Amino acid sequence: MELIGERWSLMVLRELMLGPRRFSDLRSSLPGISAKVLTERLAGLEAIGALRRERLPPPAAVQVYALTRWGLAAEPALQELGRWAAMHSGHDPLLPLSPVSFMLSMRTMFRADRSEGVATRIGFVVREEAFIAEVADRKLAVVRGAAENAEAVLRAPDATLLAALLYADVPLPELEAAGLTIEGDRALALRYATLFSLPEKLA
């Protein structure tokens, strides 16, 4: 906690778990953080060795922030904190969350016991960010990238709609009216959505 206990530090780590991001991307994913505070948190995480600055090759040629191997190793701790928070009766799965936060929630709330016999690739597009989730051998992998060769693609203007589908039992017609779309194998996409659940409430 002495290393990463300052406000926003864990959320900056979270937003970098699925790959390098630009400063502007991080600000967009963390509503409420000022440019000054984000600069300070990035500098602090860089100083302790959790992240590094990189420059993308042309034509992008922009600076991005990427986690080091040690920074990436914090994901299990983030998952356990997320699981712990979801055990509280005040937890609301419909509160706003970033696309990366939702993707990490899937890696956290995945139920291997429900995935027997399921082998699939599901694409997700949230605003302009694309991800691929692959289920195989009772394991889930989620990475950033275009939904190529996906059997179904879920598109949403906001990650909250996806969280509502997986965790809140909101009727599908209501979600579709709000902007959620399912392309490809619709039945498979809905089967995929059943592979997740929030933990039992303890408080």
As a whole number of angstroms, the C-alpha radius of gyration is: 17 Å
Task: Please state the structural category.
Answer: alpha+beta
Q: What is the averaged pLDDT score?
A: 95
Number of helices: 9
Strand order of the largest sheet: 5-4-3-6-7
Instruction: Describe the global form.
Output: globular
Give the proportion of residues in helices. Answer: 25-40%
Instruction: List the helices and strands in order.
Output: HHHEEHHHEEEEHHEH
Quaternary assembly: single chain
Distance between the termini: 24 Å
Amount of beta strand: 15-25%
Q: Please mark out the parts with pLDDT under 50 across 5 or more consecutive residues, or reply none.
A: none
Count of strand segments: 7
**Largest sheet, if any?**
5 strands, mixed
Descriptive labels:
five-stranded mixed β-sheet; alpha+beta; two-stranded antiparallel sheet; 20% strand; 9 helices; globular; 203 residues
Lay out the secondary structure:
Layout (H helix, E strand, L loop, with lengths): L8 H7 L7 H7 L5 H13 L3 E5 L7 E5 L1 H4 L2 H12 L12 H11 L10 E7 L2 E8 L2 E6 L7 E5 L2 H9 L4 H6 L3 E4 L1 H8 L10
Parallel strand pairs: 3-6
Antiparallel strand pairs: 1-2, 3-4, 4-5, 6-7
Helix pairs in contact: 5-6
Tell me about this structure.
The protein is of the alpha+beta class. 38% of the residues lie in helices and 20% in strands. It has helices spanning 9-15, 23-29, 35-47, 69-72, 75-86, 99-109, 159-167, 172-177, 186-193; strands spanning 51-55, 63-67, 120-126, 129-136, 139-144, 152-156, 181-184. The strands form 2 sheets. It has a 5-stranded mixed β-sheet with strand order 5-4-3-6-7, covered by helices on one side. Strands 1-2 form a two-stranded antiparallel sheet. It is globular and about 45 Å long. The two termini are 24 Å apart. The mean pLDDT is 95.
